[in-house]
From TrEMBL:
Keyword Methyltransferase listed: no
SUPFAM superfamilies: vWA-like
Organism: Mesorhizobium abyssinicae
Domain VWFA: 153-216
Residue intervals passing through the bilayer: 20-39
Highest classification ranks of the organism: Bacteria, Pseudomonadati, Pseudomonadota, Alphaproteobacteria, Hyphomicrobiales
Keywords noted in UniProt: Membrane, Transmembrane, Transmembrane helix
UniProt protein name: Pilus assembly protein
UniProt entry tagged with the keyword ATP-binding: no
């Protein structure tokens, strides 16, 4: 029996007739698995790639919306709609999109979009093997990041005060010449880099704000609506006394007089000709002041036989404006007639009193030595304060033989710098040459008023009036940078003048410090919103410097809170001198923090480096190259 079974088994083993079916049955399992893998793999790859493509497309499109300044909610809604519209073979119901907007309101930043795809496989176990998860988990997540393209707007706020004519330490060149070279190199470096950004218009723009005791906004702007064209600003008629020209005053021409209506003064009567009914302003003063020039037309034996007198406008407004009263001196508020104090008022340095008649026959005089005596006083013997503010004198033609105005004097006294150069696209030949030519034209003269320069640097970048060349203040993907350089402390010149006109200072951007701001009690405009450290009735150079320093810190804080990046440079200052050390500290405090560099003095590496450079004449060019690196990092896109 056993032998028979063994023989049967040996015959079965030798029989090959049923092996093909058996092998086919055994092989069917892996073959079907392979088919399942192929089907799900193909479909999975297709859906995954389609999701990624839609994600990338939505990222680029949404980035453009962000740059166009849509709201956060609208940007996220746009991203979702764009993403789902680009899903052809994937159901939007099987996806979930998350959008992370750039965290910064200025500068490019990164837009991040992440999508979750829930895949429905034909063969669940095979799909689970493909994605390396459990059979119940068939979701995939992918992300796409878009670095917004950065654009850059830079205002060069450069000291043009008289001390810039001094040779820079370690060099044989004037500081102003060293500054011209360094600033030009900076513009050229950024222009070369910006030229590589073909996908965005005006990638890098530069403005120039030369400053000394004041800032020149350009005489061509005299008719702009942001100027005080109607004389309604509370500072417009500061130290102007029009009462002597009222119709009710004895001796006033009834056909040519002044009438006050509200805060404005008007020209009344037919004697004004075409100007009758117009507001009397500093602009009309410049227009109406006439002077006579006498020239010789015929000589004989070395003597003039015939003269010709020519009468013409004495002087035109050069373009400088006074500082607005607080808070508008420290911000970029749009000027409007509904807020008169926000308007800009042209500088007009009053004619300071000349000789005082000491007797009734005008045979004897006394002089006070006022530095800016440039016109002829009224004929009667008014007190000196009245002589300075009496407006009748400006409507008397100045005779040809009157004394010449003092050097840097006249109605434009204190206006010594060239005009602001608004933002220029330095990727163009015209734009770059406009900026570099303006840099080359700078000349040093006058006092130092850093806060006024800084204020106009901010306004040159702002999209608000008076200069509207900058991109929208809220536009993402754009950095606005003010670079301030000075070689000394803030200065405002005091004078001992408590007896007569009580000016208490020379005339500059804050007018005379001896005059109080209307409605402020006894506080002059320069001292408004300053701390107890500033003596409100102390008219000294040191106190003026303290006040200007505080105005500067207020400006710096306001600018930085408005997403302006502030970079500061001190030139040839040393910390062994107390005044210079204080100026250095003020500039460092004013500066912004770097986004890219850490403070080398902090071993933890957590503190950002301050955007402040203390340069000497010999190292100024190196400092500006470091500034160029910082600006390049702001602009570079990933």
């Amino acid at each position: 029996m056993i032998r028979r079974f063994e023989a049967t088994m040996r015959r079965f083993a030798r029989d090959r007739r049923g092996n093909y079916a058996l092998i086919g049955a055994i092989a069917m399992v892996p073959l079907m698995g392979a088919v399942a893998l192929a089907v799900d793999f193909t479909d999975l790859v297709r859906q995954k790639q389609e999701t990624l493509n839609a994600l990338d497309a939505a990222g680029v499109a949404t980035a453009q919306q962000i740059v166009a300044n849509v709201s956060d909610a609208d940007a996220k809604a746009y991203a979702k709609n764009f993403f789902e519209a680009n899903l052809s073979h994937v159901s939007p119901a099987d996806t979930a999109l998350s959008v992370t907007l750039p965290s910064n309101n200025a500068g490019g930043g990164t837009l991040k979009l992440c999508a979750t795809l829930r895949y429905h496989p034909y063969f669940l176990p095979a799909a689970a093997m493909l994605i390396g998860r459990t059979a119940g988990d068939t979701t995939l997540t992918a992300c796409s990041e878009v670095r917004l393209k950065n654009t850059l707007e830079v205002a060069l706020v450069l000291d043009n005060s008289g001390s810039m004519s001094t040779n820079g330490s370690g060099t044989g060149q004037q500081r102003i010449e060293l500054l011209k070279t360094a600033a030009t190199e900076l513009v050229n470096t950024l222009a070369l880099q910006a030229g590589q950004m073909k996908q965005v218009t005006k990638p890098v723009q530069f403005a120039l704000v030369p400053f000394s005791a004041s800032v020149n906004v350009g005489s061509a702007n005299k008719d702009k609506t942001w100027m005080d064209l109607d004389g309604i600003s509370p500072i417009h008629h500061e130290d102007f006394d029009w009462t002597q020209m009222y119709k009710t005053v004895s001796g006033v021409d009834p056909n040519k007089y002044i009438e006050k209506v509200g805060a404005a003064y008007y020209q009344r009567g037919t004697g004004w000709g075409a100007d009758a009914g117009k507001a009397m302003t500093r602009f009309t003063l410049y227009q109406d002041m006439m002077a006579t020039t006498r020239t010789c037309t015929k000589k004989k034996n070395g003597s003039c036989q015939t003269y010709v007198d020519t009468t013409a406008q004495y002087q035109a407004w050069k373009g400088c404006v006074e500082a607005r009263p607080y808070p508008y001196n420290a911000d970029d508020t749009t000027p409007t007639t509904s807020t008169p104090a926000s308007l800009f008022v042209p500088m007009f340095a009053p004619d300071e009193a000349g000789n005082f008649w000491t007797d009734s026959t005008h045979a004897s005089t006394t002089s006070w030595g006022y530095t800016n005596n440039w016109w002829v006083d009224s004929a009667d013997s008014l007190a000196v304060a009245k002589r300075q503010s009496d407006m009748r004198k400006y409507f008397v033609t100045k005779p040809y033989n009157a004394a010449a105005e003092p050097t840097d004097g006249g109605p434009n006294s204190g206006c010594t710098t060239s005009a602001i150069t608004p933002l220029q696209d330095i990727t163009t030949t015209t734009g770059k040459s406009t900026i570099t030519n303006a840099i080359s034209a700078m000349t040093p003269t006058g006092n130092t008023n850093v806060p006024e320069g800084l204020a106009w640097g901010w306004r040159a970048l702002s999209s608000n009036e008076p200069f509207t060349d900058g991109r929208a203040n809220t536009e993402k993907g754009n950095d606005k940078v003010v670079i301030v350089l000075t070689d000394g402390a803030n200065t405002y010149s005091p004078i001992a003048d408590a007896t007569y006109a009580k000016n208490m200072s020379t005339y500059a951007a804050y007018g005379y410090t001896g005059l109080t701001y209307p409605g402020s009690g006894t506080v002059t405009r320069l001292f408004m919103n300053t701390s107890a450290s500033v003596g409100k009735t102390t008219y000294t150079g040191a106190n003026y410097t303290t006040a200007l320093d505080e105005q500067m810190q207020t400006l710096c804080a306001n600018a930085k809170n408005s997403n302006i990046i502030v970079m500061t440079v001190s030139l040839d200052l040393v910390d062994t001198k107390s005044a210079e050390k204080a100026a250095m500290t003020a500039l460092k405090t004013c500066s912004s923090d770097s986004r890219f560099r850490k403070d080398p003095a902090d071993p933890t590496g957590k503190t950002a480096a301050k955007l402040y450079w203390n340069a000497t004449g010999a190292t100024l060019s190196k400092s500006f190259k470091e500034i160029a690196d910082e600006l390049s990092n702001l602009r570079i896109v990933g």
